[in-house]
């Protein structure tokens, strides 16, 4: 059901979706909302009312920064009572990071926040942007017969799939089908009808208050292992000035070399209070450090499991937890608990 008295706030941050080809020069230029309405006349036909907010200037999402996440949280918090849902138009490159960050920063969210974008600009004939935009608006406004939102969480909608935001990864730079949620089921599949997979969508037990969070600590590094990695590369990363946490991208089910120098460096860093989270380089599956000896040694060195977390989610969750002043031990403990459905235990 999509009643006509619903309203959605469309927030345009930038990215390919909002670009229009200049007829004379052929160059891609950012649009404003009036231009968008001209290129997507379908917007007028939508039976919900749509207001817009535009980032000025719009940003390529490769330039995304926590400051812009704070701005999004502030806009949503300030207008929360006025709208049934929110659609964020965002570049695809870092959309999974933004979706993950927002899922932690918007505690107690009980309305849809749908991020979408496109691979081809909205002004291009074959664009995937119109479809993504129109369906996202429909999902953001969708309610059950009691007037409760169908999807009260931060999601990415892209090419027929609605996904939990903090479970997504951009995995294709060319196909329309750019995002995947490898470790969590699709929340809705869009064809002629929108088929919601209710059993995996977040449910709200009682009226909850939105609690916005703005504190993030970005003193984090991502260290991706590869055969032959040098001791000085690992040592230099783990001794970065001010470093508070590392997302260690390991092999398979969370395995890493057993070399003495490697385990010693990890142990020393953990003892100094650096939180090291083990996330697998594999797209799908989970970290199980107890499974092989090569993983077990990491456990002994004080490394904590990232379970089936994406790197995007682990990085932003660490920023969130460290930003809130938790001690290393408290952060380690909270990394093992889902805050917004980002890991499966
Ligand atoms: N570089 C663009 C961005 O992320 C790509 C896109 O929108 O798809 O903003």
TrEMBL record:
GO terms for biological process: aspartate family amino acid metabolic process. It comes from the Bacteria. Residues 8-199 form the L-asparaginase N-terminal domain. Keywords: Hydrolase. Its EC number is 3.5.1.1. It is an enzyme of class 3 (hydrolase). The active site is at 16 (o-isoaspartyl threonine intermediate), 16, 92. Substrate binds at residues 61, 92-93. Gene3D superfamilies: 3.40.50.40, L-asparaginase, N-terminal domain. Belongs to the asparaginase 1 family. One of its GO terms (molecular function) is asparaginase activity. It comes from Bacteroides nordii CL02T12C05. This is asparaginase. Pfam families: Asparaginase (PF00710), Asparaginase_C (PF17763). Residues 219-335 form the Asparaginase/glutaminase C-terminal domain.
């Amino acid at each position: 059901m999509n009643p006509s008295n619903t309203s959605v706030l469309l927030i345009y941050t930038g990215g390919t979706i909002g670009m229009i080809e200049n007829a004379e020069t052929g160059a891609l230029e950012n649009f404003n909302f009036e231009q968008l309405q001209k290129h997507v006349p379908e917007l007028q036909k939508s039976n919900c009312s749509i207001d817009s907010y535009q980032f000025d200037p719009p940003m390529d999402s490769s330039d995304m920064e926590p400051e812009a996440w704070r701005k999004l949280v502030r806009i949503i918090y300030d207008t929360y009572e006025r709208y049934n849902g929110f659609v964020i138009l965002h570049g695809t490159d870092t959309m999974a990071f933004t979706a993950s960050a927002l899922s932690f920063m918007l505690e107690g969210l009980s309305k849809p926040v749908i991020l979408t974008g496109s691979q081809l600009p909205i002004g291009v004939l074959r664009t995937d942007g119109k479809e993504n935009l129109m369906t996202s608006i429909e999902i953001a406004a969708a309610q059950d017969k009691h007037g409760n939102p169908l999807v009260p969480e931060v999601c990415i909608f892209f090419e027929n799939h609605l996904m939990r935001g903090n479970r997504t990864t951009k995995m294709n730079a060319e196909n329309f089908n750019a995002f995947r949620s490898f470790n969590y089921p699709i929340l809705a599949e869009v064809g002629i009808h929108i088929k919601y997979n209710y059993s995996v969508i977040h449910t709200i037990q009682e009226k909850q208050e939105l609690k916005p969070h703005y504190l993030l600590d970005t003193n984090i590094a991502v260290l991706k292992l590869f055969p032959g990695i040098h001791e000085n590369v690992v040592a230099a990363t783990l001794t970065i000035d001010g470093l508070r946490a590392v997302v260690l991208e390991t092999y398979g089910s969370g395995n890493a070399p057993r070399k003495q120098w490697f385990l010693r460096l990890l142990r020393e860093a953990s003892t100094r209070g650096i939180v090291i989270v083990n996330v697998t380089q594999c797209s799908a599956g989970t970290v199980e450090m107890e499974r092989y000896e090569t993983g077990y040694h990491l456990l002994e060195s004080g490394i904590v499991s990232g379970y089936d977390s994406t790197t995007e989610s682990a990085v932003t969750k660490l920023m969130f937890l460290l930003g809130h002043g938790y001690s290393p031990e408290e952060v380690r403990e909270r990394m093992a608990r889902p805050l917004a459905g980002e890991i499966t235990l």
